[in-house]
Structure prediction request, 137 residues.
Amino acid sequence: MEYNKHILCLYQGGGLGNNMFQYASMYAIAKSKGMRFVVPADFDLLKIFQLNATDIDHSGYLCDPKRVYTRPEKQCCALDKNLIDFDNTSVIRLIWNLASYYYFDKFSSDIRKQYTFEERTQVHIYEIDQITCRVRH
Prediction:
């Protein structure tokens, strides 16, 4: 496999929930098609969760819009079979929310493991919990 081909690039848009669906769906699609899954270095979920199954595009080159073929989702919140019917030898970006569990159902246990909070997030949650306990008492 060539390093700069066979890539599925993450589209990030919306808030936390949308980003979680986008990551889960695109991770599973890339895995099922034997593609590299690339996320931008500033992807918010990288700061929160232990997303260990991605390549990070620090330079912006791998997913440069000039190199990427973009495929838009036709229907929100439902499986769009045409969206995932593509040749895996290119650099592809699927856009919109991909908010259907059908995209990632086969890989849900792997994705759930990745949606474990980063250690620093766990520390912040613990600190907030401690403050909340003191306020209640």
Q: What stands out?
A: Residues 16-33 form the longest helix (18 residues).
